[in-house]
């Protein structure tokens, strides 16, 4: 069994007791120094930082590879730190993370570009909102923004139409897969063990401290809805980082001994992307409308090959009250290169609920009128389905956006447990800073 072999090997390297056979009625118990749940960009960044600090790290990931969830289903934008409330974690970690990410990419030769971004007002009522964003960004420590008239912006981008625009020169794009590969290599070179196809099915505070119940992901598919899934391994970590992304809140709900008053309600928003069929990009900068409920608007992003993407939109999904969540790895055609088709199974009392990553081609009818507000020359039939992502949110429709939640013993009272909730955008930009924050605060 791959999981037990990998962790048994890690145990032998560290002089720990050998693992018992998984065929026995009692799951073997294995001591561990630091365990990170989730091999997304934030989990990998945290694992790397912990290993650099001298910790012996094990990363468990339910999917067959790293970064298959939110980390690979986003705009791949390096954000400047414009939108977030001053002194919030999102603001502080985005600004710090942007600096760290550009430095890391430059040192490691990771593909990235500092393209710059134009946030545009297309109506008179929107121009005052740009002034508010400028003030907010300045308070966040972003001092390179430039307000410009529509004529100036349209001189920069002839296909653009707007009355006024805010230029963010430090916004950029990054090859998120290459970035995650580099983080993974750093962590593994420092002795980190990565175990894929490995699901965390629960845990609790036991007589030996934290206990984490582990099973191979495929075992979850062999059990009927509502049935008990026995662990194949119990890990006893000194430090546990819950960086499970979409499953972070459901995992915390299955961690007995954690006061559920500290576990927020989870909301999920799917965002679809459409690509532009024409080969030549009409823009050289990223183009963003003003923020909307649940997101920052259907914007124009470019990848490092010049492909133009529009998105994401916001589609609120059911599933805020799930008692259990797990990744079910389903084989299928890749939606885009490096992104394998997955489904998230939320096991509810009345049966499984699947979050669908497919993109309905008819959804483009909602994109055309929104995009044409700033790109009026968009031709009918030029949008093609791209991919979608699901954002783990802590606020629902019509509610103010929530901050990141990084929650340790100082908040919930359990030594060694750190929960990361609501790590959506700007999670990619903030990843190195989130890792730095955890090491400085909880080691």
Describe the structure in your own words.
With 443 residues, the protein is of the alpha+beta class. 26% of the residues lie in helices and 28% in strands. The protein contains eleven helices and 24 strands. The strands form five sheets. Strands 1, 2, 9, 10, 11, 12, 13, 23 and 24 form a nine-stranded mixed β-sheet that branches. Strands 14, 16, 17, 18 and 22 form a five-stranded antiparallel β-sheet that branches. Strands 6-7-5-15 form a four-stranded mixed β-sheet. α2 runs parallel beside α6, α2 (41-52) runs parallel beside α11 and α3 (89-108) crosses α11 (427-442). The longest helix is centred in the first third of the chain and has 20 residues, at 89-108. The radius of gyration is 22 Å and the shape is globular.
Shape: globular
Mean pLDDT: 87
Sheet with most strands = 9 strands, mixed
> Over the alpha carbons, how many angstroms does the gyration radius reach?
22 Å
What is the number of helices? Answer: 11
What helical percentage do the residues reach? 25-40%
Strand content: 25-35%
Number of strands: 24
Indicate the low-confidence ranges by residue numbers: 11-24, 320-353
Structural class: alpha+beta
Distance between the termini: 33 Å
Could you give a quick summary of the protein structure above?
The protein has helices at residues 2-13, 41-52, 89-108, 127-139, 150-156, 176-189, 217-220, 248-253, 364-371, 409-412, 427-442; strands at 29-37, 57-60, 77-78, 112-113, 117-121, 146-149, 164-168, 172-174, 193-195, 198-206, 209-216, 233-242, 255-256, 267-276, 286-288, 299-302, 308-311, 315-317, 324-328, 343-348, 351-355, 383-393, 405-407, 417-421.
